[in-house]
Structures are given as structure tokens and as C-alpha cells.
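Hello,

I think I submitted the phosphoenolpyruvate job twice by accident. Can you confirm which output corresponds to this input? Input:
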Amino acid sequence: MRRKLAAGNWKMNGSRAALAEVGALVTTHPQPGCDVLLCPPATHIAWMAEALAGTPVRVGGQDCHQNASGAHTGDIAAPMLADAGASHVILGHSERRADHGETDALVRAKAEAAAAAGLIPVICLGETLQQRDAGETLSVIGAQLAGSLPASADPRTIIAYEPVWAIGTGRTPTLPQIAEVHAFLRAELRRRFGTAAEQMRLLYGGSVKPDNAAQIFAVPDVDGALVGGASLKAADFGAIITALEGTV
Ligand code: PEP
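Support: Only one job matched these inputs. Its output is below.
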């Protein structure tokens, strides 16, 4: 059985004072019935990991460099994230693909670097609205999966389907559209990894909120969510965790 996962992506938001939100979350959900991961900006990882020590909530990064060390000013290596207390790292988020020109090959190299450092990669895939309207969704997702997921991927690797047009917009795909992509991803993983594919978690991401979470979590092959805006407030993220617990 795949354990459900609620992952929060704080993006470039939050501060040390936001520790109060994390404290509130673990107070209302001390023993969540699903895995919970928070991915704050890199500067917040160590203090968040410290604040969450002794709780089941894990901390992750939002990106890492493909090299383990070296002359790469401003970048952060996967072993550094692990050293700061991270267990996971989001890779290939559409904002990084758009803002930093990250390619599938680069995302794959980063995923290999993350795994070598003992981190679990959360690899993001998603089509633009233009690609969806052109009927290219599955071919785009298939190409991103083939290019971004290392051949050596551990079954703990997590895939997040995040339609670009649903991120931060309040728009979500229909439930059949989510189901179609998740079924496609599961089939592709089975083709590549055989029975190990059954262990790999597929998250949906894009405007998941307390009021739509339960419906989305009822879709087959949705093993949880990658949540942006709604992960910043303990009350909202807590409600999403509660919805996910209800599906277990
Ligand atoms: C995200 O950035 O991964 C995301 C899903 O954002 P939001 O939930 O705000 O749409």
C-alpha cells in the first residue's frame, strides 16, 4: 500500500516568524494518518527541521544543484540540504523550468544528485494551457517523465503532476482530467519499473484547497498533493491533511 502524502511548497514565502504556523500544524495534527512534508525556502530548512524534530513531519528543499559541491555561486548542493535536516527535495517545478530554463535532462541530473545524497526527489511534471488545448497533455507529460526521471530511480521517488495553468490560479482540471493523467503516469511507471511502480507515489498539485481536496483525493492513483499557497497557513494545510486522512 502506498502511504498518502501531503507535501507543502512554501516557494519564496515565509519567515522565521512563520514557525508559529508549523507549531500550530503539529498541535492540531500530532500524529497524522498520512505522511506530511514541508518544503520551505532553503534558509528556513534548518530551523524548521529543528522545530519539527520528534514529530512525524518531514522537511524538504525546493531545488538542488546537480553537483555535490564546487564553484556554483548561489546554488545549494543536495548533501547540504541533507545536512540541514531535509529528507526530500522538489525538483523540476514549473516555476524553476520557466524562471531558470531547467530542462528534463537537468532535472534528471538533479534527481540523481539528490538520491546520491540520500534525499527523496519529488519530480514535478505538467503541461501548459496551450499544450492542453492542443491535445498534447499526455505526450508532454510522457516526455517530461521519460526525460526527468532517472533510469535508476528508487521506488521512493515521488512524481507530482502539476498542470502549469492550475498553479496559483485557483483553477483545477476536472476530476476525469486528473484521473487520465495519473492513470497514464502509473502505466508509464509500470512499463519502466514493473511491480516497483506500485510503490511510487503520484501527487496532484495545482490550486489544492480545503474545499476541493477531498474530491481530488478520491481520484484513483492520486496518492496525495503538492500544495503551494494553501500550505502556508496551518488551518488550510491542516484541513487538507484531514481530507487526505479521510481517504486512508
Ligand atoms: C505548487 O506551486 O506546487 C502549487 C501547487 O501551488 P498552488 O497550490 O498555490 O497552486
